[in-house]
Amino acid sequence: MKEDILNYTQNRELSWLKFNQRVLEEAQDPTVPLLERMKFVAIFTSNLDEFFMIRVGSLFDMAQTDANTVDSRSGMTPREQLDKIFEAVAPLYKERDKTYADIKKQLHPYGVCGLDFKELEQSEKKYVKKYFKEQILPILSPQIVDANHPFPHLLNKALYVTASLRYKDKTKEKTMLGIVPVPEFVSDILYLPGHDIRYIRMEKVLMEYVDIVFGQYEVSDVNYICVTRNADIAPDDEALEVSDDFRYLMKETLHKRRRMAVVRLEVAEKFSPDMEKYFCDKFNIKPNQVFRTKMPMKLDYVFAISGNLPDSMKRSLIYSPFSPQNSAHVQEGSVMKQVKKNDILLFYPYESMNPFLRLIKEASTDPNVLTIKITIYRLAKKARLVEYLCAAAENGKEVTVLIELRARFDEQNNIDWSERMEEAGCRVIYGFEGYKVHSKICLITYRNRNEIQYITQIGTGNYNEKTAALYTDLCLMTGSKTIGKDAAEFFKNMSIGNLNGIYDHLIVSPTSLKQKVLYLMDEEIRKGTSGRIVMKMNSLTDVDFIEKLARASQAGVKVDLIVRGICCILPGVPGYTDNLRVMSVVGRFLEHPRIFSFGTGVEQKIYIGSADMMTRNTEKRVEVACPVLDETIRRQINHYMRVMLSDNVKARVLQSDGTFCKKDEEKPPIDSQAVFMEEAIHAKRSAPVKEKSIGAWLRASLRDKGVRLYLWGNHFILLRNPVWHRNLPRH
After folding, report:
1. What is the pTM of this model?
2. Residue partners of 210: CB distance under 8 A and separation at least 6
């Protein structure tokens, strides 16, 4: 089948660009509130930035070192892939610019106005000029480029105003380049006085007054630019051999990222041919790596604007507020006791992360708890989880934290947290050389009547309290002794550097996860037309999985894949993937769970975990997936998958040519994320209130009516606002 695979696969990078185009489509959807649409433009932009830094950067490295390597899913060399990427990106820039301009225009009647200098009123121009002279000009660091002033190093994703300079006195005819960095420590936008949200971007202010900065020169060809550098780096292998401090080594590696090669140049105004050649020579890039954009190159300020909206405008411009609900499956009181009785599944962001945090907080003070062990890949800037882990260590618990310092773009944050936890007495260890630890697993070990017991948590997403309100993920908490023993064995292996552990229930990469999933696929293939495979993930690129899915389709197995991002297999290709369907959902929340279901009925096997079906996950990372054994939770997950597969509002179906299309609009509209939000709210409202006693329940019920319940002898007494109630004993 190896020689046939090109018939039903596509290039991963081009597939990713199509996914990001789906994000842009959300920005174009008139049913989405205007400022939320602008946020989707910002997400599209940040996605594209990271794509160039990582994927394009990686291909550039491959083009220099392994130029003849051929991509197994498209048959292209690195150079050919790069050319196809640049060709595909160019129209996306134009589409994004138009989308941004349309949204910006529609926001004006609401008083949300991003303005150019020429659109300012006279009083506003005076305000901006005064602000520039007093607050900005003194902190600028302009530079000219000539024989005595070499071309400076431009930081990754920083903005620079550029201009051609010529001496005013005509003593020298030579034209020079002037460069002014837009200070990163000032706000991206300047709010203008008034009640409306009127603002001008800081780079626009600098462009307007650059002649003041270079006062002795004639200024022309004013522009602003932004370079994107390769950020696909890893710690130096030789340094690993001589250093015994991986944290220090990662700090050094981060410094290197600042000076990596340029892979993209963005410009606000069209370059002259001479200027384009000048910058291409300076950065060692080709003209097809220069992209002009008519919209801001940084859009982080959009999220701040949403927070500054007056209440009267919020209903029109942003989503109706939704907060993660308290799970109806978790009552007040001890979470540990509840997990000991029954497994609990949390569904972020529809349900709150708080029960898991309560579990860790409770374990930190429970005298029976002996150890808490956890793997961490990404954390929020503020993390209650870290506070509770540190408290546990300070309370005498043995706390082991395996933190991955190579979590891309979170390296510094993880370094900082690792130092904090180590200071508190936690035992901190790092990932393996050549293998990132991407698993999401936590183990609490406690003693019960001289017997060691376990509570294990396994999730599909990070222990990040911020993203838990933005990403959809599953969090399973179980008191299963067999899973707990596997988790204990896993942490022991991580501590001694053993990647080849053997487990009864957990499947772990790089040793058993891939093999187990392929085996489960084979089981369904043997069933033929009775077979069933449903999988949800972020990306599918691994050739072994792709070939196995094609075999399943050819055997008549009904295969449904829910893939948010990259999907290298093409469905509906005659003779190869006729029985395979692929869909993607892009909505209010980022779809993130990894779920793998094989079979139906009592024979169905369900796993959840941290791994996508990518070679990097299955062979180059430590990932953990866990079987779902509790029947109630299995029903929850099956319901979740059925609703997702029924989505015909935010879902798009992948076609055999690699494009996406909407589902049948004649059916009743089903927005899966809206369904889950409503279900979470309804479940909490209808959940029974568990009180300690009938008296407590009565008190709670009557209190709202201004009535107090007391016990006098053997009799209950109801009193409404009594004067002498303080002397009565309460029940």
Report:
1. 0.88
2. 161, 163, 178, 180, 219, 222
Encode 125-142: b = buried (16+ Cβ within 10 Å), e = exposed. Answer: eeebeeebeeebeeebee
pLDDT at 664: 77
- The pLDDT, as a whole number, for residue 242 is 40
Measure the CA–CA gap between 515 and 63, rounded to whole angstroms.
32
Supply 695's token pair: 């008296």
pLDDT of residue 243: 45
Cis peptide before 287 (omega within 30 of 0): no
HSE on the CB side for 583, CA within 13 Å? 21
Residue 32, class by beta-carbon neighbours within 10 Å (0-12 exposed, 13-18 middle, 19+ buried)? buried
What was the pLDDT predicted at 249? 58
Q: Which class would CATH give 507-686? A: alpha beta
**H or E element at residue 320:** none
Residue 465 and residue 324: Cα distance in Å, rounded? 11
CB 567 within 8 A of CB 540: yes
- Of 599, 459, 631, the C-alpha closest to 534 is 599
For the four alpha carbons of 7, 13, 18 and 22, in that order, the dihedral sign comes to positive
Task: Compute CA distances 129 → 125, 136, 377, 563, whole Å.
Answer: 6, 10, 46, 50
What's the pLDDT score for residue 693? Answer: 43
How far apart CA 376 and CA 388 sit, in angstroms, is: 14
CA distances from 500 to 374, 437, 509 (A): 19, 14, 9
User: Where in the sequence numbering do the catalytic residues fall?
Assistant: 438
Conformational region of residue 664, where left means phi above 0, alpha means psi within -120 to 50, and beta covers everything else:
beta
Cα 544-545-549 angle, rounded to 5 deg: 120
Tokens 């080849």 sit on residue: 500
Q: Which of 406, 401, 405 is nearest to 388 (CA)?
A: 401
Considering the segment(s) 2-317 as one domain, its CATH architecture is 2-Layer Sandwich (3.30)
Listed in order, the ranges of the chain carrying CATH 3.30.870.10 are 335-496, 507-686
* Residue ranges of E strands in 254-381: 262-267, 290-292, 344-348, 369-376
Give the amino acid at 529: T
Let me know if domain 335-496 sits in CATH 3.30.200.20: no
What's residue 77's pLDDT? 95
Neighbours of 430 (CB within 10 A): 18
Report the pLDDT value the prediction gives residue 43, as an integer from 0 to 100. Answer: 97
Please report, to the nearest 10 degrees, the dihedral formed by the alpha carbons of residues 80, 85, 88, 92 taken in order: -170
| Residue 120 amino acid letter | L
| The pLDDT value given to residue 14 | 97
Pairing of strands 532-537, 507-509: unpaired
Low-confidence ranges of the chain (pLDDT < 70): 1-3, 170-172, 233-259, 686-731
